[in-house]
Design brief:
The chain is an alpha/beta fold. The chain is built from eleven helices and ten strands.
Length: about 350
């Protein structure tokens, strides 16, 4: 086939991160350097196999720490999950590195699998999650609350809907989400989310353990948002670093105001409530930075069809910036460098 397709894709492409789990083996080395070299060799071999398979229509490129794959219009980042690496890092005193690796390659995929299972049980959940995230991003809260924390908050409104039935529409779920944010006693009470409530419900003893653990945490050091699950009784896996107390108070305040608007429009029989709560007020910010969305990094490049010649697909991969988001990178850099002096709010989806 030719290099047609007629479409265009953004120069900056989001990647779907996939954890590759290998069978446990005693042949893995106990030296971190040797382990990384062996993993790099695995990426090289995986890239060779994918590139040799003409029917797969993939272009793979191996890096030292991951494998990038373009396939059928999607970009993937494959990373090998090795539990031994976590143990070795911990033994070498690199606890933060070990925790980060475990979070990214074990807990995040497990969380995603749990949400996927809930989505089969509650059909309105996926769109409700997107609506709630859109609301938070609209109010310039991008990066100040993790995706996993948002998903747990939304999931809770479906798992524990009492005194109502589970939301049957994304809009109903959104209103329940705002209600939860604005009415729960966040400063004193952890939020317990039983993700496996149907197959293996959380016992009363486990719930008591969670409450007892959180009661012993000092109010000074305690994160403002505790989201407790059966595998995270401390409730800080997704909220350890964010949000800050000031930010969370703002989230609750915005939710309370939005809930009032939604109730007012629903009572009046108007459907304009969602549109109203998706409008933000910018007058209260000291400095506003506008980004040029038509700048070079966001320009589009010609799309290469899946059936095109492999050399054209390789050429496209070289021209793309996989996993690079200019706005996200800028905001992260500003928060890292100047976070002690100012709070930076952003809408990275705009």
């Amino acid at each position: 086939g030719g290099g047609g397709g007629g479409g265009r894709v953004s120069l900056c492409v989001d990647e779907v991160v996939c954890a590759v789990t290998l069978t446990n083996s005693g042949k893995w080395p106990d030296d971190i350097g040797a382990m990384k070299r062996l993993t790099a060799a695995i990426y090289l071999r995986m890239a060779e196999c994918l590139n040799e398979d003409e029917d797969a229509g993939c272009v793979a490129h191996a890096h030292e720490g991951h494998l990038e794959v373009l396939c059928k219009g999607y970009a993937y980042r494959l990373v090998v999950w090795n539990e031994r690496e976590v143990r070795v890092l911990s033994a070498d005193g690199l606890k933060r590195d070990a925790e980060f690796l475990e979070l990214e390659l074990l807990h995040k995929p497990t969380h995603a699998a749990s949400l996927a299972s809930l989505a089969h049980r509650f059909s309105a959940l996926p769109e409700c999650v997107r609506l709630c995230k859109r609301w938070l991003h609209t109010h310039l809260l991008s990066g100040l609350l993790s995706d996993e924390a948002i998903e747990l908050l939304v999931a809770r409104t479906f798992i524990v809907p009492l005194p109502f039935s589970p939301p049957s529409t994304p809009l109903a779920g959104f209103v329940r989400f705002l209600t939860l944010l604005s009415t729960h006693s966040w400063e004193t009470t952890p939020l317990v989310i039983d993700l496996d409530f149907e197959k293996d419900p959380m016992s009363q003893e486990t719930c008591r353990e969670i409450v007892a653990h959180t009661e012993n945490v000092s109010g000074v050091t305690r994160t403002p948002l505790l989201l407790c699950t059966a595998t995270d009784k401390a409730g800080t896996r997704w909220t350890k670093d964010t949000p800050r107390k000031m930010v969370w108070r703002r989230v609750v305040k915005l939710a309370s105001a939005a809930l009032g608007v939604m109730h007012k429009h629903v009572s009046a029989g108007s459907s304009a409530g969602v549109r109203m709560v998706m409008q933000r007020e910018e007058s209260e910010y000291d400095v506003i930075i506008h980004l040029n969305t038509g700048a070079a990094l966001n320009k589009a490049v010609p799309a290469i069809a899946a059936g095109s010649y492999k050399n054209l697909r390789k050429q496209q991969q070289k021209s793309l910036l996989l996993g690079f988001n200019p706005a996200h990178t800028l905001v992260r850099e500003l928060r890292s460098r100047y976070g002690r002096y100012a709070l930076f709010f952003a809408d990275e989806l705009h």
